[in-house]
Amino acid sequence: ETGVTQSPTHLIKTRGQQVTLRCSSQSGHNTVSWYQQALGQGPQFIFQYYREEENGRGNFPPRFSGLQFPNYSSELNVNALELDDSALYLCASSFGFYNEQFFGPGTRLTVL
Amino acid sequence: QQQVKQSPQSLIVQKGGISIINCAYENTAFDYFPWYQQFPGKGPALLIAIRPDVSEKKEGRFTISFNKSAKQFSLHIMDSQPGDSATYFCAGKFGNEKLTFGTGTRLTIIP
Lengths: 112, 111
Description:
- Chain A is mostly beta strands.
- Chain A contains no helices and eleven strands.
- Chain A has strands at about 5, 10-15, 20-25, 30-35, 45-50, 55, 65-70, 75-80, 85-95, 100-105, 105-110.
- In chain A, strand 9 and strand 10 (about 100-105) form a beta hairpin.
- The radius of gyration of chain A is 13 Å and the shape is globular.
- Chain B has no helices and eleven strands.
- The chains are: A mainly beta, B mainly beta.
């Protein structure tokens, strides 16, 4: 059984650019949640996707958007990058909303 | 209203000692309280979780104590080992809603 994988591992962008982060959910999981973890902080919920539909969103601006594909993998897109977007971006998958979420290793995004 | 407050921010414990991390929550609707362990460069991994219908749950050296009336819960790590050195996060969740995390505790176990 393959766990949650994320790509890329690290990414460096400049302010104003756009970035796409990718997540492959664990086999059998149909729900993907994205979190932002700033240095020294706990993860903050960005949004969740269930069966290709957004199902819940945290306090993040519209320039944070996402997609879920028929195979339940997911993308996080961030437009007009700001310095404060520098963080570890975590993807977590689960089977439905009520079950345990399994986290991937994250993508470290640095915005210069 | 959705906050989870965690303390201490950092903790140093001698090998073999007991590590205790505390959390307090505000949302009385929370019905699931997990603890996550995170090593540098890794994502959080579920360590142990409790639901509010029990006051304690033990798994090996890890115990959650839950006080519903005080809206507090804590993680106890017995016989702490250097391999337990990591950052620990408590969290709360209601039904199908998001996980709300605490700010984390960096635990260091010294020989």
